[in-house]
């Protein structure tokens, strides 16, 4: 597993039910097998459970598989404490994990291919459903088209990132401070689409609705269609394709609320403009005011 102080996303139900929705759990491990996890490393992985079967993938492209023991089975010799084992093939290295359930999660030992070993703990904390704020942003990236030119720009993340400053509906041009919050602008054009920005968070959160704005600066709405993608650990996965309603009044900002088809848990999102009504200078794009609800 990848060393370093990172969050651990573990899609795991500690009961017997099938866990189809990713849920975040903390994971820590050390490199000394003595029955005590010193929590010297933190990693993350996506893991699902169906009956007694465990399966999943890691952000580095690793593949995980394993089983969970049925409790109180006299033929297996099991008791009231749930036991489990799984193996992880990652970066060409195969590691084995085995352990049992506790009141707060799972704990056990891991073994590497060359004598490596240690203790690990899975904490049964569910992911935070608190709406993320600027302090929760680990990294913000905008495509090169949103920088360089005189009017091509993007805001660096600031204390107003992800804050719903103005609510929904039309807002006069003069009432918006463009230096605050999420804002990306491609004024010189730059087709073809997509034109994207992405945000990585310190830990996963759960969302289904969000708000996003655009502007009509005199030549039509600078956003007509966009995609909303999440990172699943190995690749981007599209979770929604949206049409942005036309902003009729010139020099007006407007923000709208959008709903994904399903609840999503992730620590990395991408918003990609796929169309614009302002086709002067090969297509102008403007997105601003992203917030989660």
Task: Describe what you observe in this structure.
With 293 residues, the protein is an all-beta fold. 0% of the residues lie in helices and 47% in strands. It contains no helices and 18 strands. The protein has strands spanning 26-29, 41-42, 46-50, 53-57, 63-68, 83-90, 93-101, 105-111, 117-123, 137-142, 153-154, 169-172, 183-186, 195-216, 225-231, 236-243, 252-275, 285-292. The chain has a 9-stranded antiparallel beta sheet, with no helix packed on it. Strands 10, 11, 12, 13, 14, 15, 16, 17 and 18 form a 9-stranded antiparallel beta sheet that branches. Residues 1-22 have low confidence and may be disordered.
Describe the structure concisely:
Helices cover 0% and strands 47% of the residues. The protein has no helices and 18 strands.
Structural class: mainly beta
Note the overall shape: elongated
DSSP strand (E) fraction?
Answer: over 45%
Number of strands: 18
- The neighbouring-strand order within the major sheet is 2-1-9-8-7-6-5-4-3
By DSSP (H or I, 4+ residues per run), the number of helices equals: 0
Low-confidence stretches: 1-22
Give the C-alpha Rg. 23 Å
* Terminus-to-terminus distance: 33 Å
Can you write the helix and strand succession as a string?
A: EEEEEEEEEEEEEEEEEE
Give the biggest sheet.
9 strands, antiparallel
Mean pLDDT: 83
Please give a handful of descriptors for the protein shown.
47% strand, nine-stranded antiparallel sheet, elongated, mainly beta, 293 residues, 18 strands
Task: Give the SSE map.
Elements: E1 26-29, E2 41-42, E3 46-50, E4 53-57, E5 63-68, E6 83-90, E7 93-101, E8 105-111, E9 117-123, E10 137-142, E11 153-154, E12 169-172, E13 183-186, E14 195-216, E15 225-231, E16 236-243, E17 252-275, E18 285-292
Antiparallel strand pairs: 1-2, 1-9, 3-4, 4-5, 5-6, 6-7, 7-8, 8-9, 10-14, 11-13, 12-17, 13-18, 14-17, 14-18, 15-16, 15-17
